[in-house]
Design a protein that fits this description.
By secondary structure, this protein is an alpha/beta fold. It is 29% helix and 35% strand. It is built from 5 helices and 10 strands; from the N terminus they run H-E-E-H-E-H-E-E-E-E-H-E-H-E-E. The strands form 3 sheets. It has a 6-stranded mixed beta sheet with strand order 4-3-7-8-9-10, with helices on both faces.
């Protein structure tokens, strides 16, 4: 998605440790028009799939997931990183390690929002080592929901996450695929 790649080049900042800071438009300040374009692209990529729900994890996956849900006219469910006091005992859970924050969270989804009747599209902002997506896929397995695929806004192709997802047989569609960070600059896979 050229529009996204241009925005990454314009506003993304490469930090030590293979971290890409995109807080100008994706995960602190959100560009609604860009998120809408991202939602349209996910809808186009998965138009042949009978999606009934979109699943993401809080917080940065919510914006692209909401826009995809808007375009596809399906509900969006997000896994919580902290169990709220109002959440009953009936939850699906998975352990997820955050590469950028260096912490493990137990993510959870109320069982009433995901079931074997659902066909799910998992959407997340970044794919690096694949831990968040693996956790979301585990929640889908617990719910016995069908998974149509995984949509990622920014994939770090030089890390293992994409390989893990593809090896598990799940369809993966990433809108911007980063091959490397060289001298503080982003190099995309197609270059």
């Amino acid at each position: 998605m050229k529009l996204l790649e241009e925005r990454i080049r314009q506003d993304g900042v490469v930090l030590p440790g293979n971290v890409l800071k995109v807080n100008q438009f994706l995960n602190h300040q959100i560009d609604p028009q860009l998120m809408y374009e991202i939602g349209q692209e996910f809808a186009r990529l998965f138009k042949e799939s009978p999606i009934t729900k979109i699943l993401t994890v809080e917080a940065s996956g919510i914006a692209p997931a909401i826009m995809a849900g808007l375009v596809m006219n399906v509900p969006v469910v997000f896994a919580r990183k902290k169990k709220p006091s109002t959440l009953d005992a009936g939850v699906y859970t998975a352990e997820v390690y955050s590469y950028t924050k260096k912490v493990t969270n137990t993510i959870s989804v109320d069982q009433k929002f995901l079931s074997a009747k659902d066909n799910v599209l998992v959407i997340d902002d970044f794919l690096a080592n694949g831990q968040a997506v693996q956790g979301l896929l585990e929640i889908c397995r617990q719910a016995q929901a069908e998974v149509s695929g995984v949509g990622i806004v920014v994939e770090k192709s030089f890390q293992k996450g994409a390989s893990l997802i593809k090896e598990s047989g799940v369809r993966l569609e990433s809108l911007a695929r980063i091959a490397s960070f060289e001298n503080g600059e982003v190099r995309f896979v197609e270059e």
